[in-house]
Amino acid sequence: MNAAAGSERLIVALDFPDPAAARSLVGKLEGLPLIFKIGLELIYAGGLALARELIAEGWSVFLDAKLLDIPNTVERATASAASLGVSFLTVHGTDRKTLDAALRGRRDAATKLLAITALTSLDARDLREQGIAEAPRELVLRRARLAAEAGFDGVVASPMEAEIIRATLGKKLLIVTPGIRPVGAATSDQARVATPADALRAGSDYLVVGRPITAATDPVGAARSILAEMDAAGV
Fold first, then answer.
1. What is the pLDDT of residues 113-149, one digit of tens each?
2. Which of 151, 182, 210, 219 fits 13 for a cystine, CB–CB 3.0-4.6 Å?
3. CA 129, 131, 135, 141 torsion-angle sign
4. DSSP of the chain, one letter per residue?
5. Where are the domains of the chain?
6. What is the pLDDT of residue 182?
7. Backbone angles phi, psi at 115, to 5 degrees
8. How many CA atoms lie within 13 A of 1 on its CB side?
9. C-alpha distances in angstroms, 133 versus 43, 121, 141?
10. Tens of pLDDT along 36-47?
11. What would be the CATH architecture of the domain defined by 10-233?
12. DSSP β-ladder status, 174-177 and 154-156
């Protein structure tokens, strides 16, 4: 069981093809102050059952479902996710119809709703291919404002935009930041990255780390190192 429930700020992305591999890593990280993220790859391979197990054991679970559909579907999917007892659920923050539907679906559950602003793998050229003329920074801030107006709990945004969101919106939103890479780690398919300390100083509340921990020879040591860097940031 998680020995430090309530103090977790580091989210470990369980990006594995099956629950057994994810469960193995969770066992190794037992006792550390962590939140576990279950994303699309694992959701479609038994991840929801794993989420129930982890929650029953006392872990906080981040369900990275990235909901985006017609309002009725988003509302019902949010209700289903909230009934699992997950701590966080992601919804694409593209428009108020989608955001409002998620809020209706959550009702009075404790699940925190996070609006995805722009995926950290995207740069300005990718956005132009989607027909979006705004730079990533402008798009992220606009969608963060939309999330705040709707009453969402927070946003998912890269470390490159966390600072402007915090400066513009203050403490209205939690900021959850993927694209975190310790010093010397490969950026892989992430376009907008930062170190743990830099992201926290920029205003992030929670950090999402995947491969630097999950692919490490010593995942426990890697997780401890990142936690130490976060503590040293003094934020």
1. 999 998 878 888 998 999 998 888 999 999 999 999 9
2. 210
3. negative
4. --TTTT---EEEE---SSHHHHHHHHHHTTTSSEEEEE-HHHIIIIIHHHHHHHHHTT-EEEEEEEE-S-HHHHHHHHHHHHHHT-SEEEEE-S-HHHHHHHHHHHTT-SPEEEEE-S-TT--HHHHHHTT--S-HHHHHHHHHHHHHHHT-SEEE--HHHHHHHHHHHTTSSEEEE--B--TT---TT-SS-B-HHHHHHHT-SEEEE-HHHHTSSSHHHHHHHHHHHHHHHT-
5. 10-233
6. 77
7. -90, 125
8. 8
9. 33, 17, 14
10. 999 999 999 999
11. Alpha-Beta Barrel (3.20)
12. parallel
Q: Are 212 and 15 in contact (CB under 8 A)?
A: no
What six digits make up the tokens of 106? 């959550």
> Can you read off the two tokens belonging to residue 139?
């798009």
CA angle centred on 121, ends 120 and 122, rounded to 5°: 90
Q: Is 66 a catalytic residue?
A: yes
Tens digit of each residue's pLDDT (9 = 90 or more) over 14-70: 999 999 999 999 999 999 999 999 999 999 999 999 999 999 999 999 999 999 999
Q: Which one of the listed residues 66, 97, 171, 172 is annotated catalytic? A: 66
| Token code pair at residue 208 | 């999402």
Backbone torsions φ then ψ of 2, nearest 5 degrees:
-65, 125
- For the entire predicted model, the pTM comes to 0.91
